[in-house]
Fold this protein.
Amino acid sequence: MTKKTLDLWATQDVHEGDRLRLFSAVAQAVKATTVLYPGCYVDVAPSFVFESVTYVDVDKRAAGFFGDADGVAEIVAAHGGLRDPDVSFVHADYTDDLGFPAEAFDLLVSLYAGFVSEHCTQYLRIGATLLVNPSHGDAALASIDPRYELAGVVITADGDYRVVTSELCEYLVPKKPQSVTADRLHASGRGIDYTRSPFAYLFTRVA
Ligand SMILES: C[S@@+](CC[C@H](N)C(=O)[O-])C[C@H]1O[C@@H](n2cnc3c(N)ncnc32)[C@H](O)[C@@H]1O
């Protein structure tokens, strides 16, 4: 592994094991083999628990990181993943046509990377899952997207994560009455202030 790869992973894994705990909780709740992660930067943690992961980012550092295939495989194996992981990286803007077949993936990941669901839902199988956090407004956008239904929330406490699938009607309730529209979310680039604040949401693609 190159020093650069090690250093980049150290900056990503600054709260050691945090993403491993997140994706482990998601993997327990969601049956998925093929995962698409647009705006991944160097977060290779999905490969610790999922068999086949395609990563997408425009950042040169991410391209350099995933270009060190042996280093990435070492990191994956050291965290309990496969010794010869199925990891692909596409150095691209996810708002462009990524060239994947429609509905090719079982899980779409959207964490702190903008409106991933808007551009990449086409690649997610109907019946499969979007994991999305609220920070950039993508969770709110998914909540008003007729292709999605809320299926669970990811709760964090004391650095651990668990998926909750009950009483979902208590989530996605804005603190202040307001109409949530795609135009407003695009204009603000921020999420909605909800009465409950889970770390992330799981939506099922229904259409
Ligand atoms: C704040 S980082 C989050 C990285 C990772 N998802 C995480 O949670 O640690 C946002 C990443 O999204 C990438 N990104 C933002 N917009 C993008 C786009 N349109 N296409 C590809 N990558 C994008 C950036 O290059 C950056 O690496």
Q: What stands out?
A: The first helix runs from residue 3 to 12. The chain is about 30% helix and 25% strand. The pocket of S-adenosylmethionine is lined by residues 38-41, 43, 56-59, 62, 93-95, 111-114 (CB under 6 Å).
